[in-house]
Amino acid sequence: MLLTSYRLGNLTLPNRVVMAPMTRSRAVDGVPTAETATYYAQRATAGLIVTEGVHPSAVGQAGPAMPGLHTDEQVAAWRVVTDAVHANGGRIFAQLMHGGRIGHVEVAGHQPVGPSAIAADAQVFTPTGMRPAPVPHALTTAEVADQVQAFGDAARRAVEAGFDGVELHGANGYLIQQFLSSSANERTDGYGGSTAGRIRFAVEAVEAAVDAIGADRVGIRLSPGGQIQGIVEDNVPVLYGELLKALPDIAYIHVMATADDEVLMDLRKAWPTAFLFNPGGQIGPEEGTLEQGRRWLANGADLISYGRAYLGNPDLVERFRLGLPLRVTDRETWFGAPNGYVDYPSYQH
Fold first, then answer.
1. Beta strands of the chain (E only): which ranges?
2. pLDDT for res 288
3. The CATH number of 6-333 is which of 3.40.50.880, 3.20.20.70, 3.10.20.340, 3.40.50.1000?
4. Which of 56, 97, 290, 328 could make an S-S bridge to 154, C-beta 3.0–4.6 Å?
């Protein structure tokens, strides 16, 4: 079933294997390079590619050497990437990732922003090494609207750049999840406090993207209950249950295995469109397996995403199809290294 086709919005995917978004830190001044085009084109046999996190505005940049999608130069560079993927028969969504409080003045040239002036209990990447996360500027209510609109503007630019759609990054401790979190959000206006207040930013950001490019081109990634980068969420089943009720019927939700199976299955049952599942769970030593993917398809998932398996195996679909071994990669090459990016060949028989 993993290798059967699936209709996602206005796209027909040849298989249900999705390349999950993974930070690679190889952009130059926020612009993807020719090697970026090669990297994604090599992996175009995936049913769908979701890119690394792309900041929708300058203030949203989370770390050095990460690409953006808010200038004409960035749009033009991404067009080279999407053209290469489409020429190889692939489909590609841009992941819009606003870092929020996960950032640093050394990275973007200004203080990061967040729902409240609370620093993450985490280290952040900077051009001079790891640094404690700084206290962010607490967004005013008017400024929240600007950040919402940034997702809509970036979605529009993504389509201009040739992307088939966008995925909003609502997971892993970045801005959207910061609004959901009781440890990052102590607001007393309409964007905090109650469950309805906490989910409001996520819903409005998705609505802005939908207004810009249409619901069938929009997804969102979620890590319910995931505790990373200082995130704590209260009453996860209720929080995410209410979020799913409030979201428009977009193309998919992309759920990470960060809660127990009962919570995840309830979310599957509650969601009316495609359920994209990442069995690898929270960022850490575990990664998703073929067997886990098959189990979750049997449990009702529609699509399965794989991250690290795609780093060293551009032909992951073919390896799954033929039962071939997977290549393991060196962690030292994941971020910004001169090697370990486009130099992994397909399996040689």
1. 6-8, 11-13, 17-19, 48-54, 92-96, 113-114, 123-126, 129-132, 137-138, 165-170, 218-222, 252-256, 274-278, 303-306
2. 75
3. 3.20.20.70
4. 56
